[in-house]
Amino acid sequence: MPASCRPRSGLKLKRVVGYGQVELSNAASEGVAIVPLHIGYIQDAAQNHALCSSALMGAGQSRRFDDACCVQAAQGGYLEGRDQWFFVLPVELRAAALRLRGRQDYAKLWPDISELNSAYGLPSRGHLEQILSRKRATLTQFQSRLELMPGQLGALFFVGDRFAGLELAPDPVYFGELWMALVCFAYGVAAWHAEPEPAGAEPYDVASLAELRAELVRDRAARLAEVASWMPAPVGDVRLVEEERYLDLRLSTLTGDGLAGQVVTEHGRPVYASIFAGR
């Protein structure tokens, strides 16, 4: 797909119109922008917001979203313009945000944010910046821990031994631009909270390099089998409801059996997906 579909180089936050109202633009001359599900922005001189839904935007189009969530219940905590950046809502908030799409109430996510802050030992208020900004140095460590592979289009995310989400992008550049927002914020918040105390590694009892290589092969195979066992059971009652379309692209919402999210298809083939374990 054309470069305009990419979340950092093609999609821009144009302005915050008012509480719960943000305007995005696809300034490219061609191509369709796929707005990442639950993307949010930390920006100077305006309250911080996140979207409840994905969207499709044509080249040169600006679009106003009136059902955005304000994620900053109190004034203050703004970053300098040079530090502006985007995030994806933590997975603990995503099911609630998806259910709230279409509802025009800028404060609608504050109770869930307050609950999340309280669970992490932070002041109980609807201010997501307590986690995203004040814990940013800790959360961004996940970007170096999890290596983005050349040509990578997507990933499965697990927190501990539980499936947390599946992310798929239309091209490797799109996925690379979204990578930090996913690993550090969408899934990194839960991983940081669940991270166990480091355990000492047992040394290999080998007498040669060949034996060491054989042990590593066995360990990798065992680890792959363990990760495969974490996958959720085949889903049963799942609903896929089309939300909007643009040319040959179809945006649909998926719900059911502990999963939720949105998918974009082109001629029936998925080109974007953000599916997560939901409550």
From TrEMBL:
<dbReference type="InterPro" id="IPR046699">
    <property type="entry name" value="ARPP-1"/>
</dbReference>
<feature type="domain" description="ARG and Rhodanese-Phosphatase-superfamily-associated">
    <location>
        <begin position="19"/>
        <end position="276"/>
    </location>
</feature>
<protein>
    <submittedName>
        <fullName>ARPP-1 family domain-containing protein</fullName>
    </submittedName>
</protein>
<dbReference type="Pfam" id="PF20208">
    <property type="entry name" value="ARPP-1"/>
</dbReference>
